[in-house]
Write a structure and sequence with these properties.
Layout lengths: L22 E6 L7 H17 L14 E4 L2 H9 L16 H15 L4 H8 L9 H11 L10 E8 L4 E6 L13 H8 L9 E7 L5 E7 L2 H4 L3 H13 L19 H6 L5 E6 L10 H4 L8 H27 L5 E4 L18 H15 L4 E3 L6 E3 L6 H28 L8 E2 L5 E2 L1 H4 L5
């Protein structure tokens, strides 16, 4: 791919979005072992990007996205996609391919979700189903080590919920400002966002310090309690950076959607500047009849209530983002991939479905989903239904990969032209892709 490699032969870092036409976002829903479904989609996308890059197997998904957001299992996938091989490298490269993460799930899933009759009883009466979560925690800590939010190869956004504050806590590479107060361990972020109530215990980390210098203690649970579909959280994180006038997000090229880097113009562009891929894990949404629920007591309402809250949250995010794109931007620049209503009705797999047969079924669902017709939330029926029988998700992903490839090439070319026109004395530091750049001009890549 033209512009994919640096002058030194490595993969060039993705230039800030101010050099491009779009802000690129990847969002991955929560869903436990159902994370294997979006992983099938991500493996396909990564192969398409490598194909467009001249069959270069060094290319990774994080080479194309400004922000990767994930909730619960999606948060773990997002973090792994952005985890560096070596944080000390001048040009940090991602450690994992999408296939690597799939194998990680297949190998560790059965160990993490090893059920027993005692665990099932505890699940319904007292205590988390999987005890202290030691297997999950140690697996994540082993992979992440001492890596921090500030070490990610691209920005991530991962939600959790604080049970003591009764408020969402959203971890973001944008907000860590490289200080220990806010710059959390990636392992803590992943363990917290995957701490599903009744399955795993809450996870405690130290947060910002108060006026007396004492750290707030955060007692965190699964990010699905905040937003199982984190797309709007990712958009909000970016918009906050635009409000703060982060220079990475102000266009500097004349024919970009926001002309000449005018902050007022940038702030008004809204969804026109976004290119978003959002992947769901839901494939067989249950429905409740009035007779099923009308006489239920508090205990019997537990599962239906959680199902309804998760579905409502996921629906509202997807519906609102789709409407925003239709009214303010290009609807084709928002791609949501999940099963349309009425598909995959043969089996419903819970978030801890981790047997060999379950894993095979989840990967089959992901593979079948590639060949399903592209879907979109219908504003009248409120159902996620097919848009065009002739367009499969596979086709939509190929088109999306092409847009990502073109955006990356465009940014690299515009960055090269921009700095080539600057005076030699303004080139204070050598850039990662072999072009001299001024730190003050670029600003911090992740705040």
């Amino acid at each position: 791919m033209e512009g994919a490699s640096s002058s030194s032969g490595g993969i060039a870092p993705l230039p800030p979005s101010k050099f491009g036409k779009y802000i690129t976002v990847l969002s991955i829903d929560g869903g436990g072992m159902r994370g294997l479904i979006p992983l099938v989609i991500l493996e396909f996308l990564e192969k398409e990007l490598q194909k467009l890059g001249g069959e270069d197997e060094r290319i990774r998904i994080s080479d194309y996205f400004d922000v990767i957001a994930g909730t619960s299992t999606g948060g773990l996938i997002a973090t792994m996609l952005a985890t560096p091989k070596d944080k000390e490298d001048t040009i940090k490269r991602p450690k994992y391919t999408a296939k690597d993460i799939t194998n990680y799930y297949k190998d560790l899933g059965p160990q993490i979700f090893k059920s027993s009759w005692w665990g099932t009883i505890k699940h319904w009466i007292w205590g988390p189903k999987y005890g202290d979560g030691k297997v999950l925690h140690e697996a994540i800590q082993t992979e992440m080590g001492e890596l921090m939010l500030s070490d990610t190869v691209t920005s991530i956004v991962v939600p959790t919920f604080d049970v003591s504050l009764m408020a969402p806590i959203v971890f973001s590479s944008f907000n860590n400002d490289r200080r220990p107060i806010t710059n959390q361990l990636l392992s803590d972020v992943c363990i917290a966002t995957t701490a599903a109530p009744t399955f795993f215990p809450p996870w405690t980390v130290k947060g910002r310090r108060d006026r007396d210098g004492n750290p707030h203690i955060l007692n965190l649970i699964d990010g699905g309690m905040v937003a199982n579909n984190p797309t709007m959280l990712a958009i909000g994180a970016v918009e906050r950076q635009i409000v703060k006038e982060n220079p990475d997000f102000f266009p500097v090229v004349a024919d970009s959607p926001s002309s000449l880097g005018n902050p007022d113009v940038s702030k008004s562009e809204g969804f026109k500047r976004y290119l978003i891929l959002s992947i769901g894990t839901e494939y067989n949404r249950g429905h409740y009849s009035l007779d099923e629920i009308k006489n239920k007591g508090k205990a019997m309402w537990a599962i239906p209530a959680i199902d309804m809250l998760m579905c409502a949250s996921e629906f509202l995010v997807n519906f609102n983002v789709a409407i925003f794109f239709q009214s303010q931007g290009d609807p084709e620049n928002y791609l949501r991939i999940q099963a349309t209503d009425g598909t995959f009705q043969d089996k419903k797999l819970p978030l801890d479905a981790a047997s060999k047969d379950d894993i095979r079924d989840l990967q089959r669902i992901g593979a079948d989903l590639l060949d399903k017709t592209q879907g979109r939330t219908n504003e009248i029926t409120l159902r996620f239904t097919s848009v065009n029988e002739d367009i499969k998700n596979r086709d939509a992903l190929e088109d999306f990969a092409q847009k990502l490839s073109e955006e990356r090439q465009y940014r690299i070319q515009e960055q090269e032209k921009y700095f080539a026109n600057k005076l030699p004395e303004e080139h204070e530091n050598e850039g990662a892709n072999g072009i001299s750049i001024n730190e003050n001009e670029l600003g911090e890549e992740r705040l």
